[in-house]
Amino acid sequence: MELNERQKRMLDGKEGRGARKAMEILVAYGKCYLAERLIPVTSVHIAGNFPVLMDEGIEWLEDLAAEGTRVTVFTTKNPEMYDFEETDELSIPMAYQVRQNRIHNALKSLGVTLTYSCHHYLVGNVPRFGDHIAWASSGSQVFANSVIGARSNRDGDHVALAAAITGAIPGWGLHLDENRKGELVIDVGRLDLENYGPADYKALGWHLGKIVGTRIPVFVNLPRDMAIEEIKGLLYTLTVTGATGLVHLVGITPEAMTAEAAFGGDPPPFPEITPSQEEVNHAYLDISSSAEEKVDMVIFGCPQCSIQEVAEIADLLGDRKVHPETRLWICTSAWVKTLCKRMGLLADLRAGGVRVVADVGAADGPHLYLREQGVRVLAMNSARGSYYAHNLFAMDTWFGSTKECVDSAVSGRWEGRK
Amino acid sequence: MKIKAKTVVPGIAKGEAIVSRTAISFTGGMDPETGIIRELGHELEGQSVEGKILVFPTGKGSTTGSWQFYAAFKRGHAPQGIINVKAEGVVAISAIITETPMVHELEEDPFEYIKNGDFVTINADEGFVDIQKKEPS
After folding, report:
1. ipTM entry
2. Considering only alpha carbons, which residue of chain A is nearest residue B58?
3. A320 burial class (0-12, 13-18, 19+ CB within 10 angstroms)?
């Protein structure tokens, strides 16, 4: 792989140990994919928090941050374990606070912008069409490629951090025009999409991810007025059961205003897929992992709730109150929580027994201590959250629509599909 | 028998093969404290990959997988070597940071020739995989 003078200096260790480590990672990664050169990146986002880093990961980060290594590109960070303003109220064990502080300090020392959010593109980390970026967090990565038309591979945190430090990423995969062409048609015309909501798109994504795998699908016959929450629902779930990095939504994806454009003039190399409602129904049941009808907690926010979603939950709850033996959490970013405060939503929700928790997501961070606090059965409107809560933390999960989840919080029992 | 393969991470690893025809997510899919595959309904659910040559088509799921693989490696529960049909980025970087020998894009279908329990050598320095069949019991 071709390196410029500055990159060679980094590899030789003349720009510090951290830069050398970062360049070694990129060179090994680039070699594996036969990249010819490193491409400058304009934006980086990193994902891991304590439950996935574990103590070994914290040490790795601290080692990287030692000797003053700094990122050279605007870099934001995914959610963490707890709301920094509510450590006492949420009874966060000291052992976790100590670990969280170590991660916080290492990232701060590296110069990462401490957003603790997975909707970082709602608050300033917004690449332009055609930009080369390095976004870890499989959901936002596929969002960047498919909705914004920026270019990112499915980079793990180690690659994304190396890109942030060196300012560049190996040019392979989705960074190159020839690798962004669609590979198979998914015709959703058989489904009754007019009556679909976000949860249905998530069930559809769950089913299709297994079939699509790492290939680039081209969706045809999607409604042009598909809501952003529905787009996110579909994309963020495709990357749970599959590993696609780019999805062409014909009429929505900038590079796919037509199916022909999505295939770059070539015929699709793989046969067409036409999902049925029966398959989507089956996915609904497949996502849920619980058999226990009593719900300990309803948790929203995978990805973190936008202000619109918080308002929708407040509307659905109305004057009702959360069941005394059930908790309802809305996970979001610090700035959406600030908006909730300013608009009076926070107080209203609190009166109904709802807690708005900042800096965390519903998939992973809080489950470590929630489990210790006796929470076992979760209800969620996120298929993605359900997968990670179950597989990482052995939570039993129910999956359904936002309304079904809110109703379950009020009755204390699962009110959705079983 | 020998099959040519492309190198992802150089090095030599030898061990017993454990084969999955379905993709693996290291986050959520594998317990880093034991090396046991824990994804519900996965074909390797309940089986350990520790010290084995792990053969699977490709990665999937969270991009945080490289942290979980790194933790499993530091705790001695990671596989010794990886054979993929196509190396997905998260699996490749997991192997890179732990210097775990890894190959992909074999000239023959690995699932045709490698079965659970076969003794497999990954020679990622020279770019091949060598398979010794398990004795029929």
Report:
1. 0.91
2. A214
3. middle
Kindly report the number of other CB atoms within 10 A of residue B60's CB atom.
29
Residue in chain B closest to A57 (alpha carbons) equals B67
**Is residue A325 packed enough to be buried (19+ CB in 10 Å), middle (13-18) or exposed (0-12)?**
exposed
Answer yes or no: pTM beyond 0.90: yes
> B62, B66, B94, B137: which is the annotated catalytic residue?
B62
Residue B41 half-sphere exposure, CB side, CA atoms within 13 Å?
Answer: 7
CA pair distance A173, B13, nearest whole angstrom: 28
Asked if B29's CB is within 8 angstroms of A56's CB, the reply is no
- Active-site residue, B94 included: no
- In this structure, the number of other CB atoms found within 10 A of the CB of residue A316 comes to 17
Task: Give chain A's radius of gyration (CA, Å).
Answer: 22
Look at the block and give the residue holding tokens 């039993």: A396
**pLDDT per residue as tens digits for the range A316-356:** 999 999 999 999 999 999 999 999 999 999 999 999 999 99
- Give the nearest partner residue to A47 out of B38, B64, B92, using CB atoms: B64
Angstrom distance (rounded) from CA A238 to CA A216: 11
End-to-end CA distance of chain A: 53
Helix/strand/coil for A286:
helix
